[in-house]
């Protein structure tokens, strides 16, 4: 689809400097812009490229002042980065307009599908499943019996959702995500282990996005719960009976052990490990590669393994780096 500079300005509540009728049909980075593409300038570090780019339209801030002529038409807005993000979302949504059921999918006669649903080849949908309106399910995804999937969801190829899982509205599950596999529950018996049945489920609330190859285990009893607005990166492990609070974000390769509760509006860096049965308060920030072995109070900022207050960690790290020279000085003093 093509859009003119004026149409884009109207969409973003901006104004046009240049030709309002010039059109674009694709997006580009400003330094790689080609004719017929739309780009943006938010970071002035890239300002030099606006005079070189071949992009037909560039989104800039209202306060941007030109130093020499610019070939592109400019769309002026209050916040160029956020405006471009809005366009990216609109562009992305255009990629997911397919509807219909592919003949090589398997959909149970006992499943209920909403309007404008797309079911790709190789998808398997079990008995008692409910799929909401405008949800798109891509190739080779498997949805177990009695799952509920809300409206406007995106399930990319190769997602596996075990039986009885509950997925809210506007949820995105990227390729390789597994929802509802058994929790890691084993009871010692003699020289081995007996498996403890995991009979709970997983609940994912509205507006959640889960990255590729992340796994969320079903509860032993009750539910593993991912609250509204949570964003999980790729390659994260969420164990049985964990609860993650609203709008918390977790970066890649982190793991949360069983029955821990994480509050709302937390920010957790990559490769963080959180032990089981802990309570992480609201608004907590945890630096990458930290290890959490005890409860964390609201609004704490922590780092290290085991993690502690980030300001104390940084002071300690200064001394740690100096430790070899401190030891050498001490050895000299002891010899004297």
Characterise the protein shown here.
With 336 residues, the chain is α/β, with parallel strands linked by helices. It folds into two domains: 3-94, MurE/MurF, N-terminal domain (Udp-n-acetylmuramoylalanyl-d-glutamate--2,6- Diaminopimelate Ligase, Chain: A, domain 1), CATH 3.40.1390; 100-311, Hexapeptide repeat proteins (UDP N-Acetylglucosamine Acyltransferase, domain 1), CATH 2.160.10.10. It has a twelve-stranded mixed sheet with strand order 8-11-14-17-20-25-28-31-34-37-39-40. The chain has a ten-stranded parallel sheet with strand order 9-12-15-18-21-26-29-32-35-38, with no helix packed on it. A nine-stranded parallel sheet has the order 10-13-16-19-24-27-30-33-36, with no helix packed on it. The longest helix is centred in the C-terminal third of the chain and has 26 residues, at 310-335. It is flat, with a radius of gyration of 26 Å.
Question: Could you outline the blueprint of secondary structure elements for this entry?
Answer:
Blueprint: E1 3-4, H1 5-12, E2 15-17, E3 23-24, E4 26-27, E5 37-40, E6 57-61, E7 73-77, H2 80-94, E8 100-101, E9 106-107, E10 112-113, E11 118-119, E12 124-125, E13 130-131, E14 136-137, E15 142-143, E16 148-149, E17 154-155, E18 160-161, E19 166-167, E20 172-173, E21 178-181, E22 186-189, E23 192-195, E24 201-204, E25 209-210, E26 215-217, E27 223-226, E28 231-232, E29 237-238, E30 243-244, E31 249-250, E32 255-256, E33 261-262, E34 267-268, E35 273-274, E36 279-280, E37 285-286, E38 291-292, E39 301-304, E40 307-309, H3 310-335
Parallel strand pairs: 4-5, 5-6, 6-7, 8-11, 9-12, 10-13, 11-14, 12-15, 13-16, 14-17, 15-18, 16-19, 17-20, 18-21, 19-24, 20-25, 21-26, 24-27, 25-28, 26-29, 27-30, 28-31, 29-32, 30-33, 31-34, 32-35, 33-36, 34-37, 35-38, 37-39
Antiparallel strand pairs: 1-3, 2-7, 22-23, 39-40
